[in-house]
Write the structure tokens for this entry.
Amino acid sequence: MKSYGRTSVSEFLGDFIVYRNLVPFDERLPGLDMVREAAGVAAGTIPRKSETAYARVIAYLLQRAQVLWAPGTPLKRLVYVGDTRLNDGGAFANLCGAGDWPGAAFIGAERDEAARVEVVEQEGGVLYLANRWQALGEFEHFCRERGIEIGAGTAVVVDLDKTALAARGRNDRVIDRARVEAVRRTVGDLLGSGFDGAAFQAAYDRLNQPEFHHFTADNQDYLAYVCLILGSGILTLEPLVDDVRAGRMEGFRHFIAAVDARAAELPTGLRPIHAGIHAAVQQGDPTPFKAFRYNEYRATVARMGNQDDETPVEQLLAEEIVITQEVRAVALAWRARGALVFGLSDKPDEASIPPAEMAVQGWKAIHRMETHAVGEGNPESGNR
């Protein structure tokens, strides 16, 4: 494995990318509010990646992007590159259905075991599950054998988080550390001298487990808020865990409603923070804890391109959020052959795009940030 120098995800995506709010970064494409009626999405909602409504929005955007990319060439097939069988595999199947496209999906993750590939047939397309990112080179041969030519008329959808950036099993711990640092910084700043770092970490680690995903909805905004409330002292961890396990605390909305009923007990400085988050949750905002997400953006950017070019690969992978060279290589090769390459990110816009006042100072969206590309060489897939 080696470093292939500095670049950005925009090298192979351009600005064809949507973050969680489903507002394309490329302003020539319509945002969610302009697509709702055509995609059958209810007003005031933002569908998540696993939902069929999400797939209808993305299929619509792919068709519009194709008009910009290759006018007169209809999309005939779909190729997907992601890192999780459940989330990405499900999104791929939904997309095939929404666009009425045949297709194939590469689902990769680096694992400490013998290299292997599993092929899973499913309705609408096939999954190519690999425990090496380098297997992307063979994936194209696999697609060709299935009659899926990756070139003009092909939509290539690339997952950003832990796929194009911070590859799962190889570099993902760095991006996870950025998020934890952001939660810790946000909660610590709000609690001030009352912040207990050890208690915070215990609560975060405990509630960030799959067992509690039904409570937190696997939403880091919700988890950050819960940690803030526990840090305030009006509730404590173990009784909360008991209530969740016993079903007495049914979910996050139940939790924030219970806190709202006791808002007068919160420290004075936390009351407006709680009120703002509570109002955002009632309005259906999936990222209600804005202060946390702004800190996550800063913590993420701080870990991109922060190492010298002479830094050993092992250190790059441990300290910097890097681009997955194997993904970069195939995306560039497929793009050169006429495929539409389009990025998806489930990371909130607030954690991915700088606000206007920061943008004018030179801050950039995550996909435009330069960082090192690291991976295995594979000339057959177009790696440099």
Remarks:
- The longest strand covers residues 2-7.
- The chain has 16 helices and ten strands.
- Confidence is low (pLDDT under 50) at residues 379-384.
